[in-house]
## 1
Amino acid sequence: MGAPKEGILSEEPLYDPKILERLDFSKARTKFSPAVSAVQPGEGLRVRPLCRADYRRGFLQLLSQLTSVGDVSEEQFLKRFDAMQACPNTYYVTVIEDTTNGQVIGSSTLVVEQKFIHGCAVRGRLEDVVVNNTYRGKQLGKLIIMTVTLLAEELNCYKMTLDCKDKLVPFYSTLGYTLEKGNSNYMMIRFDKAPS
Ligand code: 16G
């Protein structure tokens, strides 16, 4: 992931963390047992927006449990962070930190896409959901997905969509996501020149 540089990386959040306090987990389309929320995720855990310092907290190593990340240097990471921050109200990269060891152990992203349709509505896209393998079975996947799903609702998205591996459809179905009849295909073209 590139050699870490000298100096301190900023803790400035990618988006205003106060929005997370407004999320109403009683509206979550799933049950948590024990009850958790973005502001009370459980002992030793914190749900918060991504910050630059997360580069050194294993954020990219975590993402590599989802797909290929490549050798992303600190400089490249910071540049991408800046680019996201320069698009206000668009990128809501949200992480779970294990505060006992300072590592980022879960993440998911809400991307808010601006539309002309539906009266210039906004649409949410659920992206890059991942929970560290060693933390599975603790409702953290549900928690991080519900956090950004409720965030999409809070930000007035008219819908939230995702694409995932076929085997994960039953899991997402338990969280209120549905295969809409006659409208549940996801198609793609992969481009040869794309970086790994
Ligand atoms: C999954 C992810 C998507 C991610 C992609 C990476 C969710 C809900 N979906 O489809 O966000 O970008 O995997 O796979 O997390 P790729 O490397 O094959 O594009």
## 2
Amino acid sequence: MRIDLEEAVFRLKKGEVVALPTETVYGLAATLTSKEGIRRIFELKGRPQDNPLIIHLHQTSDLEPYVSFFPEKVDLLTKALWPGPLTLVLPIKEEVIPPEVTAHLATGAFRVPKHSLVQKVLKETGPLVMPSANLSGRPSATSASHVEADFGASFPVLDGGSSRQGVESTILYFDKECWKILRLGAISRERIFEVLQVASPIYQGKAISPGQKYRHYAPKAILHLSKVIPDDAKAVIGFEDRSYPRFATFFSLGESHNPKQALHCLYDVLRRLDQDQVKEAWVDIAISEEGLFETLLERLHKACGDKMSVC
Ligand code: TXA
Ligand code: MG
């Protein structure tokens, strides 16, 4: 059910859960102060209690009351990339954040989103917790219809059109004197390098958040990631500027040189595979591995999950 901005704010202030658009993907929102809303988010998504939520803020200065210590260069990151698709995991003042939000960790994940509608909502409601608005283990939602497909036609959604990025935020964590990437996302590793002037490795230690161990973004179809598409492929996920077996059903990720466009299309394509009851598809991965292609390849590998077959 589509609701307007005023109703979204009204429901959130009452402690309810609504879906909101962001520039990355749609989120299931509740206020940081609504115990019932937070409980309901976990219930609706079927999300394990030990997978913490991102706290969304209206502006950078709203971090102050929640954070116990600001690691070096945090200001470089926030000045360059907020509002925007960057999430920072920071040490928190534990007494001011409900432990269900952080899964009892001593850190919290924070982001200032850019989408104008969510910005307007945050201005009225204050901080919102907001995981991606999909059932746990399903591709994230990048449109209001995706949200309704997962939570039902009567679920309240503020429709902000199709998500501009179409992939989640990049998550950074300060570990052993260095910012490390916990999750690749809409901001590339190269862009972070430009800001910090030092490379950020992918975090390889033991899972900081139990959420890291859960399987994500999985369609029902078996996906084969391959640089060569076999002649008898029945379904192909690939690029418009390339040719594929004539009788294969084609799912487009746009042009092969444009990773932003591919990420924008990706979750919709994964959801359409399920809708069309595709059992098996070949994915063209004869692409660069740099910039946002790195995020694209990572999401494709995750989408394969334990059914992964890389050729
Ligand atoms: O783009 C996004 O980030 C979207 C939009 C709605 O903002 N949100 C999103 O939330 O992707 P979610 O819940 O689907 O993913 C958040 C990730 C989870 O993997 C969770 O484990 C991790 O952030 N996370 C949250 N708090 C954490 C913490 N304190 N330490 C480490 N990881 C944390
Ligand atoms: Mg998610």
